Amino acid sequence: MSEEVDELGVRLKAYEGRAAAVACVGKDPVNAPMIRHWCEAMEDTHPAYRGPDAIAPPTMLQVWTMGGLSGHEGRTEAYDELLGLLDESGCTSVVATDCEQEYLRPLRPGDEVSFDAVIESVSDRKTTKLGAGYFVTTRMDVRAGGDLVGTHRFRILKYAPARRAPRARRPRPVVNRDNAGFWEGVAAHRLLIQRCTGCGTLRHPWLPGCNACGCLDWDTVEASGGGAVYSYVVMHHPPFPAFTESDHAADASGPYAVGLIELAEGVRMVSTVVGVPHDKVRIGLPVRAEFRRYEDEGAEEGALVLPVFRAVEGEG
Fold it and tell me: Which of 22, 21, 59 lies closest to 39, judged by CA?
């Protein structure tokens, strides 16, 4: 097995530096409607993205290169061949791990985007909790009017899933340096909202800077916990051992509602709606935050505390 994997690694390395796309052209020029949709989805109200001198948010760089279902002319066979080799070796699963972007100049409505892509690197064989496989990094150079405007690196892990007994363990949130304060508050049964010290704007989810004025300084306010369902979806999935307790469905393995909750303070938060059956949840339903503790036997992190929102009887 080890000899086979080493041989595969050598074959994969031969793809480094090969083109994945050549002289591709964006399906649409940079345009104001797409910028507006993006800003609304991100709740980004920065004035630089509006008006006659508007620029596109830098993080939209990849948007202008997407090929949709029909793809792009100019795509080479090298990348598909590389993934095919990995599939044949048993590395049939894939997960996107991270991306890096570098911005050299702003894009503006009317800019025509073109790009080339290259297979920049293939790692040695790596063993992860998901399974053993290879990290593949592609680099895309994006141009407008012949000028390089940005670079987008995208990294995936193609791996053979590890075979192990499933653990009845509730998935845990990803905690990083930007949101650690929120989860520390949740552990103490406090719902903390970021507040910009520059303009006073409240924001959630937590971000390193204010999306209204760009200020990097902030403090927190504690939410009252009251709110209402702004929108919701009903989740249907096969029974999963980690989700066995329920007080919002007759069958603990049955459907449940996940709501976008608008807090009394004005920000919105996603969490489970409890206290009523899923088919009784409605837009405008009054709710109040509560904190649930989940004990995971043998978990190194200890107990997990999560905020949920309970329907408030007699209101609304």
Answer: 59
Residue 162 CB: number of other CB atoms within 10 A?
A: 12
Q: Can you tell me whether residue 180 is helix, strand or coil?
A: helix
Confidence of residue 251 (pLDDT cuts 50, 70, 90): very low
CB proximity list for 293: less than 8 A, separation 6 or greater = 303, 304, 305
Go through 233-264 and write b for each residue having 16 or more CB atoms within 10 A of its CB, e for each that does not: eeeeeeeeeebeebebbeeeeeebbbbebbbe
* Pure H helices in 148-200: 180-187
**Side-chain-side CA neighbours of residue 59 (13 Å):** 6
Between 303 and 224, the more confident residue is 224
Domain ranges of the chain: 2-161, 180-311
Give me 301's structure tokens: 């992190």
Torsion of CA 285, 286, 291, 297, to 10 degrees: -20
**Structure confidence at residue 165 (pLDDT):** 57
Q: Which option is the CATH number for 2-161: 3.10.129.10, 3.30.70.120, 3.40.50.300, 1.10.150.120?
A: 3.10.129.10
**Percent of the chain topping pLDDT 70:** 88
Packing angle of the helix pair 78-88, 2-13 (nearest 10 deg): 180
Bridge partners, residue 100, by sequence: 153
Note the helical H segments in 166-259. Answer: 180-187
178-199 per-position pLDDT tens digit: 999 999 999 999 999 999 999 9
φ, ψ for residue 258, nearest 5 deg: -110, 125
CB atoms inside a 10 Å sphere around CB 20: 22
What is the pLDDT averaged over residues 73-83?
92
* Calpha distance 278→249 (Å, rounded): 7
What dihedral angle (degrees, nearest 10) is formed by the CA atoms of 144, 146, 152, 157?
120
